[in-house]
Amino acid sequence: MVELSRILIKNVKEIITMNKNRERLKNADLLIENGKITRMGRGIEIEEEIDRIINGRDYFLFPGLINLHHHFYQALTRNLPDAQESELFDWLKYLYPIWSRVNPDAVYYSTLLAAGELLKTGCTTTSDHFYVFPKSQPDNLIDNQFEAAKEIGIRFHGTRGSMSLSEKDGGLPPDSVVQTDAEILKDSRRVIEKYHDRSPFAMQRVALAPCSPFSVTEELMIESVELARDYGVKAHTHLAETRDEEEFVLEKTGLRPLAYMEKLGWVGSDIWYAHGVHLNSDELARMAETGTGVSHCPVSNMKLSSGAAKVPEMIKKGVPVGLGVDGSASNDSSNMILEMKAAFLMHRLVHGMKSITAEDVLALATNGGRDVLSQPEIGSLEVGKAADMFLVNSKRLGFAGGLYDPVSAIVNTGDTQIVDYTIVNGEIVVEDGELTRVNEEEIITKANSISAEMVNG
Asked: NCBIfam families attached here (predicted)?
């Protein structure tokens, strides 16, 4: 598909900018040129030829959502009956043998599958935490992710994950999916040098992501963050997800998880953790002080009975925090709009009626993700920013009777979370609710076939 260089969205019912002042523009136009927003306001007229005009009269226009944590490959192992009643550690032990069958096709099609779901639910930028490298597979397994992300058209922060402690070393995964520290560090350098784009408006960047404090050696945690800083890339890992993890780290190191990570050099504005459920107020203050970020994953935390992160307190203290769907096997979808609703409801239930608003949740999924990933060009609709956005038709059965606030409408109501248009880097990648750059039927067929092979072994 040829990339559109100039798109004019005319007379939008309401543009939710999520800029610093959270301004909203009614009956306004937005002009996209060469991947950027160049003009916003009423009655935009231009003399140059327009590649596409979208009549926005019935539409709400939002900034593209940003997903901070996922495991794409798990989209092939979701909804498994025998994994539905397990908490994290037992859940992992059941699934690791199945994940040991991951191959290049599994990585490629799971990326198309998960990224496709994300795009269709308004997500324009995603990270992914890929850490399963079976010994029987090619060394460059992760490259299939970057290729698939480029093909489908999503802005991608791929993390080169790792596991070096197998069951025989006191870890959880089988020996068949772990690597040596030397193998991990060598490939981490290769992936950064091949795929990391440091330029503004980059479509692909790389971070380094040891799986967790209980799946790699202390030496690898230290060397990974040092390598990331040598290259100027970010670092990511799971932390404080469950009480079991907290007890494991305390028993192993004598320290609480955050203190252990700080000992290893894992705090700072170049670090973000998945979950952060079991962090106390003093630890949250330290996170804010150091600029260390969090990906909040409410659906996964509820499904695995992990707990409710103190997100309202994180926001008040100034901890950089955004939203993530987590791996599909613990969600079991890649739906960012549903994730927003789950976050809203979780914190109203656990932390009280005044703890969070629908607009606060949208800010997590836009501004929060932007700040955690340090990509200031995304996360809001402003002149000069990236043309990453989605449109939803207000004339839907699920919105009827509830059009007074488009943010509340998208977070609280609706008979579907599938959006009408998604635009990434100035290109329409979802139109009329369907992906434009890939064949959805082929992805569905291939994903189901690969999933059956992995599960049945």
From this structure: PRK08203.1 (NF006055)
Backbone angles phi, psi at 427, to 5 degrees: -115, 135
**In this structure, are 56 and 24 located in the same domain?**
yes
Residue 443 resides in a domain: no
35-39: list long-range contacts, CB under 8 Å, 24+ apart. 35/201, 35/386, 35/387, 35/425, 35/426, 35/427, 36/201, 36/384, 36/385, 36/386, 36/387, 36/426, 37/381, 37/382, 37/383, 37/384, 37/385, 37/386, 37/387, 38/383, 38/384, 39/383
Helix, strand, coil percent content, the chain, rounded in steps of 5: 40, 20, 40
Instruction: Find the CATH number of the domain harbouring 413.
Output: 2.30.40.10
Residue type at position 23: E
DSSP 137: S
Specify if 29 maps to a domain: yes
Q: Is the pTM of this model over 0.90?
A: yes
Peptide bond connecting 432 to the previous residue in cis, omega within 30 degrees of 0:
no
Q: Are 66 and 380 in contact (CB under 8 A)?
A: no
Query: For 61-117, what is each residue's pLDDT tens digit?
Result: 999 999 999 999 999 999 999 888 888 788 888 898 999 999 999 999 999 999 999
For residues 57 and 97, state if they share a domain.
no
| Ranges 204-208, 209-213, 243-247, most confident | 204-208
Place of tokens 């402003």: 382
398 contact partners, CB below 8 Å, separation of at least 6: 413, 414, 415, 416
Asked if 134 and 176 count as a contact pair (C-beta separation under 8 A), the reply is yes
Element (H, E) at 322: strand 321-323
Q: Say whether both 170 and 52 belong to one domain.
A: no
Classify 426 as helix, strand or coil: coil
Spatial CA neighbour of 406 closest among 417, 418, 392: 392
Determine the distance from the C-alpha atom of residue 76 to the mean position of all C-alpha atoms in its chain, rounded to a whole number. Answer: 17
Q: How many domains does the structure of the chain reveal?
A: 2
**418 is in which domain, residue-wise?**
6-64+385-435
